[in-house]
Amino acid sequence: MLGPPYNHTMETPGTFFLVGIPGLQSSHLWLAISLSVMYTITLLGNTLIATVIWVDSTLQEPMYCFLCVLAAVDIVMASSVVPKMVSIFSSGDSSITFNACFTQMYFVHAATAVESGLLLAMAFDRYVAICKPLHYKRILTPQVMLGMSVTITIRAIIFMTPLSWMVSHLPFCGSSVVLHSYCEHIAVAKLACADPKPSSLYSLTGSSIMVGSDVFFITASYNLILQAVFGLSSKNAQLKALSTCGSHVAVMALYYLPGMASIYVAWLGKDIVPLHTQVLLADLYVIIPPTLNPIIYGLRTEQIRKRTRSLLMHCLFDHFSRGS
């Protein structure tokens, strides 16, 4: 026997309510403090990295330009969700308008897609720098870098626009309580009065193809890099290259492992993985990489570390000079 037909013409809810992390409400205050600290580090660290690269004419190589864009994307990704999460955890202000919810959904998922593409571009940059150093400037010209950046952005838009459209056009006629800390698309789609599987399947398939292809080419790049590194005669050169590559691999692991775990765990459902674990994975996925990227990528890079120290000392000197 078929159930009553869904009313697709009814008004959409004006407001959703985000519950934070279901089952961990007693820890919300500590989570708010932790997220505030991490978000502050994210803003300061990524702003500092982007500023140093932007103002220093000696840091205009492709790798530093990609780092600058990555810092901007990290700020967008964290800023699209963390302030609201802190508000939920600290004051219980869980309401978010329908339009704001889908705007948040679009930006956080599009930013993650752009970041995946940037990590691939940076792996390709390291491959050219280490394996084809004599052709580095000829291969990675400003035009090529611009083309790569535009392609990465267009790919994210092409992926996210249909997904956002599918979820936003679902009929919502029941509960408006989202069992999540932000407007994650699967959590929102589950509230619909129609079958959310098409949008969920699109998300799972699209994410798997995008991330899978990026990880494949990143792995191939670093495999070639390692072969070239171990072929170097100088042990110091080997250690320096391995240290740089190790930092990059650490960033990628921090980004891809929680991200893909979050996607597949959400698809499997709470019968297999507890709901609070699903939400925690999704939350960590959008805040840990932006927090650690400026530390691992930026401060472990000698040129950026020196320029950052010089910039900070210059600012402090100017401050004390004006004060005296």
TrEMBL record:
Residue span(s) of domain G-protein coupled receptors family 1 profile: 45-297
Gene Ontology CC: one annotated term: plasma membrane
The keyword ATP-binding is assigned to this record: no
Cellular location(s): Cell membrane; Membrane
UniProt-listed SMART domains: 7TM_GPCR_Srsx
A Pfam family per the record: 7tm_4
Keywords: Cell membrane, G-protein coupled receptor, Membrane, Olfaction, Receptor, Sensory transduction, Transducer, Transmembrane, Transmembrane helix
Membrane topology label: Multi-pass membrane protein
Coiled-coil segments on the chain, per record: none
GO molecular function terms attached to this record: G protein-coupled receptor activity; olfactory receptor activity
Transmembrane regions: 29-55, 64-86, 106-124, 144-167, 215-233, 245-267, 279-299
InterPro entries in UniProt: GPCR_Rhodpsn, GPCR_Rhodpsn_7TM, Olfact_rcpt, OR51/52/56-like
Family: Belongs to the G-protein coupled receptor 1 family.
Role this protein plays: Odorant receptor. Putative odorant or sperm cell receptor.
The name this protein goes by in its record: Olfactory receptor
Originating species: Camelus bactrianus
Gene designation: LOC105067201
